[in-house]
Specification:
380 residues; 13 helices; GMP Synthetase, Chain A, domain 3
Length: 380
């Protein structure tokens, strides 16, 4: 019996499961085992004691003058052998341990302790990864099941569901990839960790890992916009005027940003400087295109951007991607026009070239050439 208690103490230290919890679990299971094996009903208690037999079973019985149910009642004379001061109507704890209960108890105790250990380990895994929600961890691709990918991230296989995958990424067996921990769920089979490769914060965390200035709080990532697998934009600012935030993120000869790009399978990343002035921020966000002027409407949170003729398609981007990301990055609705379009509008006499009524100019978009219709993109 001493060995059993010592074993429980070892489990307590190794698995961090309190001894009291283990004993309570064992005793509760032994009650069930006793009732099942010996077809006993009534208020049964099992107490673990240091003795040669190991476990002792006790039954709560009512003291009576005449016994009608031996499993629930005890005659006064027998009860007074245990407690001389007991009276009729009171209850007493009577040992009812059967001869072969030690073997049953040992087997049951082993099963229940192992089960409790598994539950404790699952809870530890849940707590460990629940604290990491919002962080990035490195994993190894293990297998595919239908469209889902399973990634080993240490103590558990994380699930990368189809909607969190980037269609252009291969996810080959044994590939080492970084994943963003999205959530941790409790399931009957234990905790399930859901990870993502498409989340915009994956970019933020990757730059934190590569750029010490971001980790130290000298450079802040103010905003992130991402179309996973294609292009991302981040806006950064510095709390130290001696530190260039864009240069810090790019790194020597582009080493830092290239490390992030490589992790994302060559997804393009634009790094722009954050400005509190919306017009400057919008102009920066449309990088790599050059901007002539930006006129903002604070109330509507709209912006009219005029670009040189040869910059229009670059500012808009393929299928409107550049301006769409800029709108997400800044939180502004952006309407792009070329200098030639504005000049033609002014010559036609419909709207003066310096008119700042953005709503009127947005209505004009309906008669723009079809190839420029996607220039007007709102934040999604």
């Amino acid at each position: 019996m001493g060995d059993f208690i010592e074993a429980l103490r070892a489990i307590e230290k190794e698995k961090e499961v309190p001894l009291e919890v283990l004993l309570e679990t064992v005793e509760s299971a032994l009650v069930t085992a006793y009732k099942k094996n010996f077809a006993i009903t009534g208020d049964i208690k099992v107490r673990v004691e240091s003795s040669k037999t190991g476990f002792k079973v006790y039954c709560q019985k009512t003291v009576v003058d005449e016994v009608e149910n031996e499993h629930a009642e005890i005659i006064l004379s027998e009860a007074r052998e245990i407690d001389p001061d007991i009276a009729v109507g009171e209850t007493i704890e009577v040992e009812v341990t059967p001869e072969n209960f030690g073997r049953i108890a040992a087997q049951t105790a082993k099963q229940v302790v192992m089960q409790r250990i598994r539950e404790a380990e699952r809870e530890q895994v849940y707590d460990e990864f629940n604290e990491k929600v919002g962080e990035v961890v490195t994993g190894i691709v293990q297998r595919r099941e239908q469209r889902s990918v399973f990634i080993n991230i240490g103590k558990i296989e994380a699930l990368l569901p189809p909607n969190e995958q980037v269609p252009t990424e291969p996810y080959r067996f044994n590939d080492r990839i970084k994943v963003y921990i999205l959530e941790v769920r409790r399931t009957p089979k234990g905790p399930q960790v859901i990870v993502s490769r498409t989340h915009p914060s994956l970019i933020r965390r990757l730059f934190e890992l590569e750029v010490p200035e971001i980790h130290d709080g000298i450079v802040n990532i103010k905003s992130v916009a991402r179309e996973a697998g294609a292009r991302s934009k981040i806006a950064v600012e510095s709390t130290d005027e001696k530190v260039d935030p864009v240069g810090a993120c790019v790194g020597h000869r582009g080493s830092r940003v290239q490390a992030v790009v490589s992790e994302l399978y060559d997804e393009k990343v634009d790094i722009v400087r954050w400005h509190d002035d919306p017009a400057q921020l919008i102009a920066e966000s449309l990088s790599p295109s050059k901007v002539s002027t930006v006129t903002v409407n604070e109330e509507e949170k709209n912006a009219l951007v005029i670009v040189p003729d040869n910059q229009l398609s670059l500012a808009i981007g393929k299928a409107g991607q550049n301006v769409r990301l800029a709108a997400r990055l800044t939180g502004w609705r952006i309407d792009i026009r070329s200098e030639a379009q504005i000049a033609r509008t002014a010559l036609s006499g419909e709207v003066p070239a310096d008119e700042e009524n953005i709503e009127t100019q947005e209505e004009e978009a309906s008669i723009m050439p079809a190839e420029h219709m996607d220039a007007e993109i709102s934040e999604e």
